[in-house]
């Protein structure tokens, strides 16, 4: 661990030049942009100050220039301007949805971040984040350990602030402080339904989410098991790779992807499954992109296509299966905060709203503000001030609708918005699980009086599965 820390924190010498295949792909993507600027209208960072370089069109130009300079071998290291404005991108992919020319901005920004990481000398803060993303965050036990040290981190943050090291102070203060509990079942193994068996799925238990809010996996499994679905958490599957990939560490992301593919192919060989499910939008988006990540890997390319073909957000899967009439009804008003990586990253738009509505809640439309809350891609750590501004804008908009509760499908959005909003925020599956017979989600205890059991069948079970 100490050696890993030293290795990850040592500054890198600038090693310019991108490989030719990457440079060609970047050039092709950039050439597909017709510079219409329609994407600027939906870009959260462009909306802040109207700086062209903080919008997708400007970033495409910056990235194109950066790689073209690399090809010419002239002063190939990224400039401060390129690093600043490319680094400020949230990777929310709102611009991808808005683009009429289907510009593949997603892979363009991935290449750019990887290139900057490889060629520029990172500062202390960046190097710490790279180390944290590769060595701590993807591993639940290490993250639990970190949470235990949160009080120390908080004191350290105050000391750093007094020492005017604001950047490092905000990092220390952002250390997670909640939960550390364990889910009732996080595998590996099968949570077998106690109802008539109607199907089988594989669930990614995740990394950060299962530590910060283990009730999300519990609610997901109960909801599926109650619908007659066996849920397997495959041995050997872990972080999807989105956290490391988000810092530009493409090799690290590939390692996680390969381990997951091995684990899931083995589970599928044992018994086929209808789907591989995710209850964090970032994970689903990352796994659906495995075919691109592993396109040049002769051993994994075809398997990545198989896995991505089975990958579904839990709301996508339940949206097709349907849950039927709820077991509890309420008059609670729910604002659904759609995670960017679900809407723009996976094209899953209406399913969560439909499921919440069919579960008996009143759904408030978050019209007029589809922009990122500032949580995408570890942004609160990378750009804390902008992340806070974006969060405040989102919070004001949500509060203007006067909801009783907010539901979202990403632990990132949940933990980012929670401290600033003053009303309960839960994962969509926790809300659904409650409506279909599960326990009251954490934070909604005071609202449980607004919910009525539907008359009829016997008392509802809390666990609907057997661990095996
Ligand atoms: S909307 Fe698409 S084509 Fe138009 S400027 Fe943006 S990326 Fe380019
Ligand atoms: S991914 Fe989001 S933040 Fe980045 S350029 Fe596109 S819209 Fe803007």
Short description:
Helix content is 51%, strand content 10%. The protein has 25 helices and 12 strands.
Oligomer: single chain
List all distinct small molecules, including ions and cofactors, that are bound in this structure. Answer: iron/sulfur cluster
Mean pLDDT: 88
Helix fraction bin: 40-55%
The N- and C-terminal alpha carbons lie at a distance of 33 Å
Protein structure class: alpha/beta
Number of domains: 4
Sequence-ordered SSE layout with sheet pairings:
Layout: H1 2-9, H2 20-31, H3 44-49, H4 56-72, H5 80-87, H6 94-98, H7 105-119, H8 124-135, H9 140-148, H10 150-162, H11 166-173, E1 189-193, E2 199-203, H12 208-212, H13 215-226, E3 229-233, H14 242-246, H15 250-270, E4 275-278, H16 281-288, H17 290-293, H18 301-310, E5 311-313, H19 314-321, E6 328-330, E7 333-337, H20 340-346, H21 351-358, E8 362-364, H22 379-382, H23 384-400, E9 405-408, H24 411-421, E10 425-427, H25 428-435, E11 451-453, E12 465-467
Parallel strand pairs: 2-3, 2-4, 4-5, 7-8, 7-9, 9-10
Antiparallel strand pairs: 1-3, 1-12, 6-11
Helix pairs in contact: 1-8, 2-4, 2-7, 4-7, 10-11, 13-25, 16-20, 19-21, 23-24
This protein binds iron/sulfur cluster (2 copies).
